[in-house]
User: Fold this.
Amino acid sequence: MTAHPPHTPPFRDPHLPFAKRIDDLLSRLTLDEKTGFLHQFTPAVERLGISAFRTGQEALHGVAWMGPATVFPQAVGLGATWNTDLVRRIGEAVSKEVRAMRARDDRVGLNIWAPTVNLLRHPLWGRNEEGYSEDPKLTSAIATAYTQGLRGDHPTYWRTAPVLKHWLAHNNETDRATSSSSVRPRVLHEYDLRAFRETIEAGAVAGVMPAYNLVNGRPNHVSPYLREHLRAWTDEELLVCSDAGAPSNLVDHEHYFDTHEEATAASLRAGVDSFTDHGTDSSQMVGRIRKAYEQGLLTEADIDTAVRRQLSVRFRLGEFDPHADPHAGVKDFDTPEHRALAQEAAEQAIVLLRNDGVLPLAPGTRLAVVGLLADECKRDWYSGTLIHRSTPLEGLYERFGAERVEFAEGVDRVRLKTSAGTFLHVLAAEDGEDEVRGAEGALDPALLAGRTDLPPLTTDVTGTEFALIDWGEGVLTLRAPDGRYLSVAEDGHLRASADQPGGWVVQETFRLEPHASGHLLRHIGTGRHVTVAADGVKVADDNAETFELIIAERGEDAVTRVTSEADVVLVVAGNDPHINGRETEDRASLRLPAHQERLLRAARAANPRTVLALVSAYPYAVDTSDLAAVLWTAHGGQAAGTALARVLAGDVSPAGRLPQTWYENDADLPGLLDYDVIGSRQTYLYFEGTPLFPFGHGLSYTSFSYGDLTSRVTEGTLHVSFAITNTGDVTADEVAQLYTRAVDPALPRPRRELVAHRRVTLAPGAREELTFEVPLRAFEFWDVTQGRPRLEPGPYELLAGASSEDIRLRTTVLLDGEPGAPRPVLQRGLDGADFDEQSGVEIVDRTRTAGDAVTAGEGGTGELVYRDCDFGGGVSEVTVTVAGEGTVELSLDGGTVLAVLQVEESESGPYDYTTLGAGIVAEGVHDVHLGLRGPLRLAHVGFSG
Assistant:
């Protein structure tokens, strides 16, 4: 007998289109199996030979959480390179390391949760390090490059599948799971959506992750924008993955739904396809989905739609075609090319903010290096474990020779004396017990436990001298002489056990609290005070020890000692990415911590040739007037120190550019929860003050001239060209920036807006002509009167230069467009959220599923203005659609109140709307002013008669 080969099911046939294969596979899955696909950790279906799958591999600037990997500069540092080609190559390297790591550890996933495209609207946002820029155009350009590198260039199979974070308008960690971002239509379409849209339209994105917050009163995880906007931008299936724990937040914290079944069903119908909740335990979420289905809140078609989107990603990743997957054998990990790329990225991310000629350093310079970041190579929450590391001090030793470099860290060296007269003491650890947090890899590093294998602190008559660093806001760390930080493990004991501060809840930070004649030492992670017990030093709820702080040396004294005889002093200051500004914690101020200001003052007083290098995840407000030079770099990854040394020495001319505005002081900032970038004049687009350093700023060791600006418009595109010449004597990069400005707009428009840029390398005397094609849609604004974008006709200025304020060339173009018209209020009325101006008003959800309304904010009083409302030949009645209780007052052109519409006390809910009417006489074109009094919601205003 002849044996027949087993039948190959269509979903295994690589010759069929993915859509047909997915249809076939869906038809073979049971409802229970499909339901199981909706959790982050999807189980295997052994009867069909389908493997388990998980969404979510962090890889923001290198593979994170899964052990050693190449670590590139933080995302904000990649934004500072303004170099899309570089960032694309980094994406390629990261995705190859993902593949190589997965080959030896199947916990490593191919669905990459990166990049973060939230705009850096507010510099106090704790997660500033994760974004690329405050500008949507630059953000989308860098994000597109990174996703293209992550995806790979094979036409069918993706190397990894990137997911954009965090949809939408998410720039605050304070109350992030319950706060609502009030985003008017113009800000939504002209600002927040743009970075997502342009990246998704480029075609290398597999999905998005909704943010924890609400937008206009509605949680992002049930946002209609997922359907109305996101899925309208591409024909590809997009996988929407919830943020961790966010599905439960809908009930537990936001109280938006009464039951988890309702919440889960609403999320799924809104477009969430994969639920990240309860860690690896899928039973809770799967149980909720099953109950929602049984209660009729979901249909099998709803479930199929979500499963289809996950399968689409898995097919594109080659899971079902292992022999055809061109990425299956990738082994590129920690290669020489990746190491060189990490150094190139770190070099290109360095921004020279100020220079009086001291840089580059002359050969033979005697250098004093001081500062809390001088001998650090910091990791952040989304870093991998460092295979290689280079601190600024190490880089300078290597480049200039250790004999020409003096060093003082500038820590305060202290001992802690107990009330019994003894001192805290670190017992010596046995050799071979060094350990790097996270080196073994973890699906959830928040669950990593502290070390208990080392001896707890004790006390003796001599004690241990600790390095005390005050990171600001009274948050301090204590480091033992062997370099390990004091930390608290699950058993409550203090040990010198951590290589760096870190973890989801940092266990290495403390506060000194004045008490009697000394201080209590509070451990911030547990909230408990330190006490001395018979079994060692620990934290406890009672018997807090009172310590006397014995200072052996002030940090500024050490700085003065090494700086006075140096030719140049380098102060390396900045932040620890796990302290005072990180995920879960916003910053309180732009200022440098007082400890570091003390060190900077001491260095400047001792030596006027002081250079400040800021190594930080965000901008600072620093007095730079008497500094010889200032540089900034984000935490630059494994090659940070080498890169900084090469720039200081002049081996590389700096060409990084600021990706966000640096403000002079906190008074320049809006409220952290004020998302109206137009109304509160935020970012370089609208800010009318004088910044410390403007968006796009960055100096060079050479000079460039600009010339020959030309422009022409053809078939919906503006063609612009100009030339750049290196007029100095150093080969260097220049970042050419092209901005536009509406000359005579009918409503507030950006002061200037980036539409294109390019980073180029020019030898001395070299000239290059740059050409740009700018689509005319880049000149559009969102017309709230028509609910769509519109190009306003008229003159637009083109501005070419080296930053948003360093404009070298300008010309004006006259663009055709669609003339504006008064609002046709007789035909359309006024939607509450379509205002032109507001004061004291918040946008809220009209219903749980769709639409916006407006309400008075804190204080119960709000004002709205709607410009140019056309009443035609006359109206005699106004109606308002409102819910809740309160009053709407209407006037024209700011005059006397013409109508008062009041809702009496009611037992109705926030979505129970009623329509009220009142007489009014108006004709012609007027500005409508509305006053909201009380907690009512206004959805719509109509006119008739």
